[in-house]
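User: Good morning. I'm curious how flavin-adenine dinucleotide would be positioned relative to this chain. Could you predict the structure with it bound?
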Amino acid sequence: MDSRCEFAPIAAMSAAMVPRPYVVARRWNETADTFTFELRPARDVRPDAPPAATAAAFRPGQFNMLYAFGVGEVPISISGDPADGERLIHTVRTVGAVTRYLGALGPGDPVGVRGPFGSAWPVDDAEGRDLVLVAGGIGLPPLRPVLYQVLARRERFGRVALLYGARRPAEMVFVDELRSWRSRLDLDVEVTVDRATESWKGSVGFVTTLVRRAPIDPAEAIAMVCGPELMMRFAALELLKRGVADRRVHVSMERNMKCGVGLCGHCQFGPSFVCRDGPVYPFADVKDLLQVAEV
Ligand SMILES: Cc1cc2nc3c(=O)[nH]c(=O)nc-3n(C[C@H](O)[C@H](O)[C@H](O)COP(=O)(O)OP(=O)(O)OC[C@H]3O[C@@H](n4cnc5c(N)ncnc54)[C@H](O)[C@@H]3O)c2cc1C
Ligand code: FES
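Assistant: Good morning! Here's the predicted structure, ligand included:
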């Protein structure tokens, strides 16, 4: 046997463990605690940087491990357009050491990138069917690549609905894009907040209430749900109540991660590893686990 073949999987795994050098090209705030940044291979911006870092192709729903030098590494979903081979976009809520460090970076600052990793939203399976996207808070960024792909070939899908819920109006991300999506006649966009402010003229209540009236044919529709676990569980149960089959409802799970490639076991979720078998799962496969607090 050719020894190169024997070692090929090990070599591929080792390569997946090495962060590639990127730099921040642009960053902007979405809300008080959430920002989006665009990363580019370091050589595009700094010709003296190490070679071999190109923006990798990804599928909607996949994530990268972002490495903040000297601080740590975190899994972050890719929130940009899968058709854009140049820019790598991530939207991050600052909650702890690594995300705070990433949020303080500016143009030219380095970030290590491993990935893309994990399973994807089944966009191709939605062709010819109605599609409903249900997002809560920071759950919209991992779904945005789906919208980009669907809108690029809109004629292949049935009715498409985006239902988005945030705690307060000030916590909504992608506000300008939401406005432009709302103005389209081929997209149903409904937005709600848990707590309104005086200037808020829209819907008030949990995003699950929007599921009840979403303009879809439940017998045929595919649903993709992303947000806090409790929100995903209740939104999925509401979809089931409307008659959407549990295998056609998909959710995206989060667990603490270290390796991102199925080696360390940090992200174990029942019998699976979220980094390798998820983060996107059919609700049918995880609904029992979702009833148990920390599995
Ligand atoms: C597949 C995947 C995709 C993700 N995509 C995004 C994304 O697109 N944008 C984004 O902002 N975040 C995303 N996250 C969550 C992100 O990875 C965590 O917020 C980050 O690891 C926190 O690291 P930290 O060092 O800043 O904070 P830490 O100091 O590690 O944690 C700060 C606080 O956040 C809690 N926390 C940490 N990680 C998680 C988690 N995974 N779920 C729930 N609570 C957590 C901790 O318990 C602690 O209370 C994703 C997670 C996974 C697994
Ligand atoms: S993060 Fe190591 S197995 Fe998933």
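The pocket of flavin-adenine dinucleotide (ligand 1) is lined by residues 63, 72, 74-77, 91-93, 95-99, 138, 141-142, 254-257, 279 (CB under 6 Å). The two ends are 42 Å apart (CA to CA).
Let me know if you'd like a different ligand tried.
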